[in-house]
Structure to design on (1610 residues):
């Protein structure tokens, strides 16, 4: 059992570590050379094109020579606080603003709770038995003296704890209600204030039935003309573009080689032109002029691709039974998304379309029947992963030891026989498997969510976050409280009575307070300070800048702004909520640590959101119901565990008072669900109609059809178009032919806010806050299969310079 | 442990009892005097006006003298089978037809299961150890020899049981899927084939917000004109008519007195006219001519009522924040019912309107926020009722003994001292409280469901049925298997491990087989035979006929056709499914008894539905998802209990095979829920549009507004109108004025299929299969507060005759 002194030392060490990180950050961020690492958001939003310089000379380009700025190294904190919430929404999106609200919610819940608990419970706990509260020795004695463990069994002082638990729950519910209300209202206001966007008018239809003799577009057209005659406008079919995506990838490789040789030639224009061999891997075959060869290859390839493209767009077999159906009003789209279309509820499944950039294209083709099976399989897998993940790791660990290494690589034996190498490996190898597992876990969970078949990236991330939360709840929270693996816990729980389980856990809770305090400091404080330092992007950016960057565009690509990774941050945030809520009554001394974490993380994330992160998509705060639900779950867990703890303390006269609390909490949750959750799923007709009317008044002669026709075309087709715009007029004509069928009314009003006939601009609409290069990179990360870049002009502005900021 | 012989004797006794009931039924039903008891449905449907007579003389009017018919006393069985399903739907409604399908589903599941289990498991069970299967003695030995108890622990024969459980589950799921599919399709076909009915065009809107300066109708009108401009037609406000309903009741009492005196005078017209006193209870005051006095009283009262009626209809304070909003198309109504209207999801709550006769008017005024609280309170109460109902009963029982009686009524002491009275009371009193409780339980549960705030009678019954099922599951099923009260069970379960519970229950299951076989015979076989005899309605009808009936109308009112009481029959039916499913593998000898029950009950209910019952409302089979869900739950329970049983038999090598079965069953349930349940809640737009189009083609000049304006007026206003039509033209004018505002377009096409301007006929529409008197009686039963009769002409056809059939 750690003493307060131990905790104090640990806190100092961690504070010192965090402080070091902050100093490093403060120094690095004001160097012009790092400007694109610490302020990429401003470059992406177009507000900054070159770093602020301290003065005009050459060194000043790279190093900050204004020494005054070094003394104000914490001035990023007030700067981060300057921007108002509405500015943040405009600047970084709604998701980011709501994400920050989670931290303020944490502060709002825990700061008053901390004051109350420290003022009431600590004296009560300390004074238990004899009143030696005022003695100096106490401050340096066991931390347990401050916790509920210090209270004698059967004491009537437990009424204080129950009272505080009631007050705390009421306060937390009150804050949760206020926050849910605010976020729901903000969301609706945000939706109402948004410019016209294709997702407002579009519905994604899955499981279009196969009508013999009719193509999918015909079927869709006929169905919606019949059943939504007043508002149906047009639709966009979805193609199975896997083969085409492969071609796109190949072409990109050719382009890379072409770029490479062009660059090589331009660096040394006086040397002879580079050559290469046409055979396997360039090892043999005829020697040709590389630049001309690849130019020709690319040209040929473009032709093949254009043919393939035609095939994909025209072959009805490659059409998926999915369509994006657009309506002439938000009302029509809202109606279609919320209603049941067909007798058979597994056909014509409609739901509001996600943003075009939020769509996960691969999952659009999954048929309905396999969704149930997929969900079942993934459900079972997640259960297995959470409870049995130690089994394969233990197996790998049993292999990954020195003997195993010797067997696999006997030639290393002389090296592994060295004492220090041996001891290093023995300490390192067994942990390696676990570390690799924990490192790839979020990715594995994301893949699992993908298999479940959700079609929006935002949903995928939310589902992955949920799975990660379960993992942390069982393996970090319960796993730390009860020794043993999750599997052993599960086994023991199955053989205990339901009333015994909270008691078993409850009893161990106060004893683990010191562990969790350390956890908060290491994982929370120092981790957050590491977040702001951005060590990895810093190194990668400079490496890229050194070796790859040739044009401004390249430099922009080398910037990795990153984003709030909801699938990791939300679950760990929820774990902190859980810790705070559980320990609020049991060991109130943990609360200050939680509060410091929330305050510090709030500052850091605010700074990062303003200056660094660039979100991939906008879900309009769709994660809030999950945040709310998990905090409620934490409240329930804390109540159950407190009950278990109190029964083990034989507080028979006070414990029954607690039974009513979970019931009240649950019904509060149910009420909130009824009251607020629909705002996160359905678009109210009232709002839709109001917005439609307003728009009709301001822009009476609007041609919606032209705007919406291409909004939901698969991005690889769009990207190809752009190139064609500039490279080959003939192809352009061919490919647009396909689309012209849906553009009949285009002539009436060609230029609108949503887009213009130019595909490039139309494409811009989806992501108004960032240039198209970032847009592409979002797809890169989301689906490597379809990755494709927009770098057509890579060599228009080539130059030998490196840091010509 | 009962032997097979005991069971055989018990079966014989019960068969004999059932046989006696059937004989009595066969004799009673062919007596013309009982015709209205055993064939009321035909009277109500208008196909029969007087009983079939065997010959022309006076005795033949009352007693069947055709002795040939006595020998064919079972001919109701083939008769019951004659009618096809579609005819039953037309004749008795969709609910009744689907209700019958539950019995055929039971037969389809259990007959093959019985053959399989008897052919495979009984030999396996019996042959356990030594093969003395062929010995004659076995047949009369212990019933446990045939059950799983006979198999030695650790035997590998349990693989047979697991195999049969798998086969049985697969078969049951297959049948459930087919049946769900059929019922869902039938429902949609039925909806599509229905004539135009107000509920197809109407949506009930709850929680209309209070707009200062606007009345509820104005707010509703404005909101729907704005947000559903293309399809909104009109709406019907809902009034708080509690005070008016009281007046209606008082007037009825006056009418009764008036009727009484008129009758008294007419029986003896030569005597002087009856008189009464005007003072308190008619004991003092001025002596007046009764007939004239009540005539005057009624006239005065009608005036007061007309004023009150005006007040209710015009006072905006008495308007509830609820409205029935009608649309000009089924599509518009379906859209409005399925979408979210307002930013605030607790306002403007829309849902498909139930049939007018299905509405439970009192609950329309419950505000949304109190619904959560009401549901919470009722949830807790149901839990308490299920687990702790024995506590108050034990308390009452402790009072209701001889000593208690002596204390309350000491004057009875001489009587209670008599030995036979004493022993009777001692045996009778303690059980009385329990019997009364069980008798009123369904009513109590219905009241609880009413408090929960559902607005349709059909939903109320379904909710009450669910509660009753939980009660039976815990107190009949578990309570019989494990000795002790539900409260004691709950206590022991809380202190056992989750894996121990199925084992505890599983072990006792085979031992209770005999009890449940007896239960099936007594409650099932004999109970069903009692159902067909209709002893209570028979007696009540003849008593009423003797003392009350004066006119044909009275005789019709005296008929009590009854109805399928879903809130009692569904839960007990589900209990039989549970018994069959649980014992299919454990004690297969129980299955034949279940099959006989299903077959017999099917015949009886088919006969009753065709000849007797008259449903109060039509929910279009809305109870099917519940039936399906509970059978799935039974499958899960049986799997868990079999696992528990097998672990107690130490069948460690075979038991794990069972673990996958509940997971598969659950995902099957999830799939079915996705696939079929929407058909029971939402009206697909495709169907709505098709029906709309068809109608527009066949009847292009339809005036919907006039048809729908009054469809959802509170029935007490409608009933009053009818009287006024005939009694007082002046009142008529006054009261219709109110409604004229909504009838502006009435003149264009006054006569339509749906209704005519005459209120009486319009009223008829709701219940096309029965005359209005039954319509009134439906309301009587549903809400005594508003009960009101249509007997205006009670004395137009008066006569001294009793049985003038």
């Amino acid at each position: 059992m750690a003493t307060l002194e131990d905790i104090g030392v640990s806190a100092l060490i961690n504070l010192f570590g965090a402080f070091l990180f902050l100093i490093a950050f403060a120094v690095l961020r004001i160097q012009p050379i790092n400007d694109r690492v610490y302020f990429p958001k401003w470059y992406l939003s177009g507000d900054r094109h070159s770093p602020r310089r301290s003065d005009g000379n050459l060194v000043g380009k790279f190093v900050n020579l204004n020494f005054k700025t070094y003394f104000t190294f914490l001035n990023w904190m007030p700067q981060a606080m300057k921007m108002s919430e509405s500015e943040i929404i405009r600047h970084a999106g709604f998701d980011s603003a709501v994400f920050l609200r989670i931290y303020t919610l944490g502060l709002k819940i825990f700061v008053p709770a901390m004051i109350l608990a420290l003022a009431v419970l600590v004296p009560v706990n300390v004074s238990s038995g004899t009143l030696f509260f005022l003695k100096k020795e106490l401050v340096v004695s066991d931390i347990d003296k401050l916790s509920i463990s210090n209270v004698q069994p059967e004491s009537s002082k437990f009424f204080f704890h129950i009272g505080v638990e009631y007050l705390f729950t009421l306060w937390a519910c009150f804050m949760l209600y206020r926050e849910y209300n605010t976020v729901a209202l903000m969301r609706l206001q945000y939706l109402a204030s948004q410019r016209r966007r294709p997702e407002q008018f579009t519905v994604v239809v899955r499981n279009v039935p196969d009508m013999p003799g009719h193509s999918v577009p015909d079927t869709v057209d006929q169905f919606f003309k019949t059943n939504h005659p007043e508002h149906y406008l047009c639709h966009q079919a979805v193609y199975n573009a896997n083969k085409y995506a492969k071609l796109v990838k190949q072409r990109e490789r050719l382009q890379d080689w072409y770029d490479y040789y062009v660059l090589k030639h331009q660096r040394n224009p006086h040397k002879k032109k580079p050559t290469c061999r046409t055979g396997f891997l360039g090892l043999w075959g005829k020697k040709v002029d590389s630049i001309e060869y690849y130019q020709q290859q690319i040209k040929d390839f473009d032709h093949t691709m254009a043919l393939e493209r035609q095939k994909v767009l025209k072959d009805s077999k490659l059409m998926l039974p999915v369509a994006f159906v657009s309506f002439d009003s938000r009302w029509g789209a809202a109606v279609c998304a919320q209603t049941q279309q067909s007798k058979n509820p597994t056909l014509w499944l409609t739901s509001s379309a996600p943003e075009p950039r939020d769509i996960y294209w691969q999952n659009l083709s999954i048929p309905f029947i396999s969704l149930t099976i997929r969900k079942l399989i993934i459900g079972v897998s997640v259960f297995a992963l959470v409870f049995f993940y130690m089994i394969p790791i233990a197996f790998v660990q049993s292999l990954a030891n020195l003997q195993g290494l010797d067997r696999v690589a006997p030639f290393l034996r002389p090296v592994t026989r060295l004492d220090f190498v041996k001891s290093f490996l023995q300490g390192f190898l067994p942990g390696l498997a676990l570390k690799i597992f924990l490192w790839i876990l979020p990715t594995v969970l994301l893949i699992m969510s993908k298999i479940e078949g959700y079609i929006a990236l935002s949903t995928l991330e939310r589902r992955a976050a949920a799975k990660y939360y379960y993992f942390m709840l069982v393996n970090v929270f319960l796993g730390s409280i009860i020794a043993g693996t999750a599997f052993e816990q599960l086994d023991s729980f199955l053989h205990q009575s339901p009333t015994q389980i909270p008691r078993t856990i409850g009893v161990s809770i106060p004893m683990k307070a010191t562990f969790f305090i350390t956890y908060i400091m290491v994982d929370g404080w120092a981790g957050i300070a590491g977040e702001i330092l951005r060590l990895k992007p810093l190194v990668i950016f400079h490496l890229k800048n050194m070796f790859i960057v040739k044009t401004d565009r390249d430099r922009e690509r080398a910037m990795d702004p990153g984003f709030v990774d909801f699938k990791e941050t939300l679950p760990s945030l929820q774990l902190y909520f859980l810790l705070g809520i559980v320990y609020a009554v049991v060991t109130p001394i943990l609360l200050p640590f939680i509060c410091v974490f929330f305050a510090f993380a709030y500052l850091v994330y605010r700074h990062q959101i303003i200056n660094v992160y660039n979100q991939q998509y906008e879900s309009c705060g769709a994660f809030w119901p999950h945040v709310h639900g998990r905090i409620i779950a934490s409240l329930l867990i804390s109540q159950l565990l407190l009950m278990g703890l109190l029964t083990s303390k034989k507080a028979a006269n006070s414990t029954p008072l607690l039974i009513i609390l979970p019931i009240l909490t649950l019904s509060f949750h149910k009420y909130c669900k009824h009251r607020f959750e629909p705002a996160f799923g359905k678009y109210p007709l009232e709002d839709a109609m109001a917005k439609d009317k307003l728009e009709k008044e301001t822009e009476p002669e609007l041609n919606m059809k032209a705007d919406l026709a291409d909004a939901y075309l698969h991005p690889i087709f769009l990207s190809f178009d752009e190139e064609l715009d500039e490279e080959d007029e003939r192809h352009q004509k061919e490919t647009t032919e396909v689309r012209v069928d849906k553009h009949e009314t285009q002539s009436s009003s060609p230029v609108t806010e949503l887009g213009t006939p130019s595909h490039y601009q139309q494409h811009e609409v989806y992501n108004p806050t960032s240039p198209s290069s970032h847009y592409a990179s979002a797809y890169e990360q989301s689906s490597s299969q379809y990755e494709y870049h927009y770098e057509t002009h890579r060599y228009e502005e080539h130059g030998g310079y490196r840091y010509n900021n």
